[in-house]
């Protein structure tokens, strides 16, 4: 009997599979055009600095009702408190512009994946946005040398937009293995059958 109880306890304590959380952001949830994204996704452990939503008609992107665009020249930052191991999104940027004698080119809009909080630390991955504001293109980042904590959109004011961000976070959710659950059920059934058989053997004859 003690062996059966020990077996049951072993089955209960078998490790499960760790599953990373996947978060999808489309900026349509309770946000309207012209609204700061800010801490709108704080319940998911994600915050934005320098991002504002604009309707697709404002910049001719028809992939979704609202997209996030940087409103400050320089860096706009997305912070993921738990960190992340992969990131996909759609993005577009304005064509390079020229101004002044000889023509100064507007720096290209870029995405930078950072190892530290709020756009600090090492650059784990980066890419130039090749899509236009009228034709967003998909971008994907993964295979970092370390978990990332933040993402930078480097672009001049209103020169770039992003939408449909999918983040694979670094926080792991334990999930019971199906095999462990099945073994636990078999062990419980065996224990129940053994106790029933044992009780019959102990019953007086003819009872």
Keywords:
globular; 2 domains; Jelly Rolls; alpha+beta; 2 helices; Ice-binding_C; 207 residues
Beta-strand portion reads 35-45%
Largest sheet, strands/sense/barrel: 10 strands, antiparallel
Rounded to the nearest angstrom, the radius of gyration is 27 Å
Q: Poorly predicted ranges (pLDDT <50, ≥5 residues)? A: none
Sequence of secondary-structure elements: HEEEEEEEEEEH
Molecular structure report:
It is built from 2 helices and 10 strands; from the N terminus they run H-E-E-E-E-E-E-E-E-E-E-H. It folds into 2 domains: about 1-15 and about 175-200; about 25-175, Jelly Rolls (Sandwich), CATH 2.60.120.200. It is globular and about 60 Å long. The model has no long low-confidence stretch (mean pLDDT about 80). The chain has about 210 residues and is of the alpha+beta class. Helix 1 (about 1-10) packs antiparallel against helix 2 (about 180-200). The protein starts with a helix and ends in a 5-residue tail after the last helix. Pfam families: PEP-CTERM. InterPro entries: Ice-binding_C.
């Amino acid at each position: 009997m003690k062996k059966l109880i020990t077996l049951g306890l072993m089955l209960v304590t078998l490790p499960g599979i760790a599953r990373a959380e996947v978060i999808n952001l489309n900026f349509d949830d309770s946000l309207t055009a012209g609204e700061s994204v800010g801490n709108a996704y704080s319940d998911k452990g994600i915050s934005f600095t320098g991002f504002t939503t604009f309707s697709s008609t404002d910049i001719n992107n028809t992939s979704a009702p609202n997209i996030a665009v940087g409103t400050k020249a320089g860096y706009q930052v997305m912070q993921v408190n738990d960190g992340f191991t992969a990131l996909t999104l759609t993005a577009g940027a304005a064509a390079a512009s020229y101004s002044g004698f000889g023509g100064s080119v507007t720096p290209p809009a870029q995405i930078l994946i950072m190892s530290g909080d709020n756009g600090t630390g090492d650059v784990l991955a980066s890419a130039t946005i090749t899509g236009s504001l009228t034709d967003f293109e998909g971008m994907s980042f993964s295979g970092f040398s370390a978990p990332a904590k933040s993402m930078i959109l480097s672009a001049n004011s209103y020169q770039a937009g992003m939408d449909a961000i999918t983040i694979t976070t670094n926080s792991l959710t334990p999930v019971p293995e199906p095999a462990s659950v099945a073994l636990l059920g078999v062990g419980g059934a065996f224990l129940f059958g053994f106790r029933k058989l044992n009780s019959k053997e102990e019953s007086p004859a003819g009872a």
